[in-house]
Amino acid sequence: MSVLVYVEQVEGKFKKSVFEAVSYAKAIADQTGTNLTAVSIGQIEEGQLKELGQYGASKVLNVEAGELKNFVNQAYAAVIAEAAQKESAEVIVLSNSFSGKGLAPRVAVKLKAGLVDGAVELPKIDNGSFQVKKTAFSGKAFAVTQLTSAVKVIALNPNAFGVKDTPVSIEVESFSPAVQSKDLAAVIKEIVRATDKVSLPDAEIVVSGGRGLKGPENWGMVEELAGLLGAATACSKPVSDADWRPHSEHVGQTGIAISPNLYIAIGISGAIQHLAGVSSSKVIVVINKDPEAPFFKVADYGIVGDAFEVVPQLIEALKKHQA
Amino acid sequence: MKILVCISHVPDTTTKITFTNDNTQFNTAGVQYIVNPYDELALSKAIELCEGGKGTVTVVNVGDSSTDPTIRKALAIGADDAVRINAVPRDAYFTAFQIAEYAKTTDFDVILTGRESIDYNGAQVAAMVGEFLDIPSISIIKKLDFDGSSAVLEREIEGGKEVVNVSGKFVASCAEGVAEPKIPNMRGIMSARSKPLVVVEAAPVDEVAKIVQFETPPARGAVKLIPAEDAASLIGLLHTEAKVI
Ligand SMILES: Cc1cc2nc3c(=O)[nH]c(=O)nc-3n(C[C@H](O)[C@H](O)[C@H](O)COP(=O)(O)OP(=O)(O)OC[C@H]3O[C@@H](n4cnc5c(N)ncnc54)[C@H](O)[C@@H]3O)c2cc1C
Ligand SMILES: Nc1ncnc2c1ncn2[C@@H]1O[C@H](COP(=O)(O)O)[C@@H](O)[C@H]1O
């Protein structure tokens, strides 16, 4: 028996969400009295792989096959399922990232396993019962799911568990699974990635703007504030519908659901659909000129005022604070 | 070409979510149901691809007869016909299995789903259907060009996008950008009533997961208001009190 964690790499590097997944998987391995094995696919330096030992992985299966250089969910799912079988893994942990969402369901079907997507807590394991809490109804509720299958798959939400240091010695083992060409039928032609920006689903701080900002030309101050905070930028749905901002920034019930440590909402009214995707943020700051805006009811800190006066003050204060 | 579009029947986005029976069941009292917003995008894209007699669009739902009005709405938007697989969906594994079993009985070219259902938010069904059928699945696409045999898709990734080519059958889950949502017109609404809605029985499948309990998020404390002229003091509070910067 063991726990297996898939460690997704981006251009030869691991993101924080991967260390979270490893820490989470290690905690499950401890709960069940077993070891944690990681599986990495694609080219990556050995030093990077060894860093996973810091968070509790005692072995990493390293899959370097050239045809698996780029992420293809069908082929990667086959590799992870084969690794799970080789390691007799009963629990498989992945990050609930964009790629994870395309991957975890395929792994689950291959292994006839129940899947919890968007887990927010460690499983409760007790007398053969295995329950995991996840977000549901776009953040308006949580659902505790019982996994009744022999093998269980969990996709962990970013920023839900944190990174925990539990250093163990780690060995790197090269692993050469069988890759079938039918699993490589989807061919990646191009990858475009803005490396200079913090990606929204992973961000610890998010600065978000709504229709109160009047137009796309006024986003300079939002970006400046976000830049100083090392934050990602987001927006309400009408803002992306009007093409002031890209759809990838739209948060809420029909956009991305996020749970950063800090969410700053500027000129956003706080409609139920918007709140659905952001209300599990740890701290919420609302800046709105209307004291009756519904967003204040779920805010931790509020400033009733004109964004065009308040935000520049915040930027100045932050520069002083950081100096 | 023949496109299958998977439609889920979900509570309206304004629904206040509550539970009954010791928080083990979603409280459906007074809830309005809609076509899952992402599925509307998938459907609109499918209709666009089939315009001018280039193909047909079949909507597929796993549900009991209470979902029929939602299916009729999809027909009103412009699907040609509909199939309801008669079962209360237990979870994504169950739902995806049913859709895959049905798909095997048809000569479909593409299966489109929404990115996720706004009730259980699994974002699981598309990739599971792909795996059950052993064909490619591309999750969370924001662009799709398809000529009936090969497709170019844009998939969302953290901080960017990925362009993917597929030939042959595939499944894709649709997000914003794929199409503008179509709104049913009068003719659509009238014709929806007479379009075929076939009911088929569900196939048995082992249970792998079940929801045992719901929780609502804890209430937040009162907001701490900071006067606008003193906005700068927020930074100090976020640093020393909230400890988030
Ligand atoms: C099916 C469906 C799904 C939806 N999904 C989403 C979703 O996922 N995400 C989402 O965000 N919305 C969603 N919506 C839309 C949602 O209902 C609201 O319409 C939307 O969130 C409002 O956006 P907003 O707050 O930016 O704009 P508004 O509601 O117009 O609010 C603008 C706010 O800015 C304030 N303001 C104006 N000027 C200033 C100023 N100078 N300084 C400070 N404040 C100012 C105003 O007081 C007001 O509160 C959905 C709607 C539907 C029907
Ligand atoms: N009961 C259902 N019947 C048909 N399609 C469904 C059903 N549930 C989910 N889907 C489809 O699968 C997508 C993803 O759903 P989910 O995996 O539940 O988030 C939805 O957007 C629908 O297209």
Give the arrangement of secondary structure elements.
The complex is a heterodimer of chains A (323) and B (245).
Chain A: E1 2-6, E2 9-10, E3 13-14, H1 16-31, E4 36-41, H2 46-50, E5 59-63, H3 73-86, E6 89-95, H4 98-110, E7 114-119, E8 124-126, E9 129-136, E10 141-147, E11 152-156, E12 171-174, E13 187-193, E14 205-209, H5 220-229, E15 232-235, H6 237-241, E16 262-266, H7 272-278, E17 283-288, E18 301-304, H8 307-322
Parallel strand pairs in A: 1-4, 1-6, 4-5, 5-12, 6-11, 7-11, 14-15, 14-16, 16-17, 17-18
Antiparallel strand pairs in A: 2-3, 8-9, 9-10
Helix pairs in contact in A: 3-4, 5-8
Chain B: E1 2-6, E2 9-11, E3 19-20, E4 25-26, E5 33-35, H1 37-50, E6 56-63, H2 68-77, E7 81-86, H3 92-104, E8 110-114, H4 125-133, E9 137-146, E10 150-157, E11 160-167, E12 170-174, H5 186-192, E13 197-201, E14 209-215, E15 224-225, H6 233-240
Parallel strand pairs in B: 1-6, 1-8, 6-7, 7-13, 8-12, 9-12
Antiparallel strand pairs in B: 2-5, 3-4, 9-10, 10-11
Bound molecules: flavin-adenine dinucleotide and adenosine monophosphate.
Summarize the structure in words.
Chain A is an alpha/beta fold and 323 residues long. In chain A, 27% of the residues lie in helices and 28% in strands. Chain A contains 8 helices and 18 strands. In chain A, helix 3 (73-86) packs across helix 4 (98-110) and helix 5 (220-229) runs parallel beside helix 8 (307-322). Chain A is elongated. Chain A starts with a strand and ends with a helix. The relative contact order of chain A is 0.12. The mean pLDDT of chain A is 96. Chain B is an alpha/beta fold and 245 residues long. Helices cover 25% and strands 32% of the residues of chain B. Chain B contains 6 helices and 15 strands. Chain B has helices at 37-50, 68-77, 92-104, 125-133, 186-192, 233-240, and strands at 2-6, 9-11, 19-20, 25-26, 33-35, 56-63, 81-86, 110-114, 137-146, 150-157, 160-167, 170-174, 197-201, 209-215, 224-225. The N and C termini of chain B lie far apart (54 Å). The mean pLDDT of chain B is 96. Chains A and B meet through helix 3, helix 4, strand 7, strand 9 and strand 10 of A and helix 3, helix 4, strand 9, strand 10 and strand 11 of B. Adenosine monophosphate is lined by residues 6-8, 36, 38-39, 60-63, 89, 92, 95, 113-114, 116-117, 120-126 of chain B.
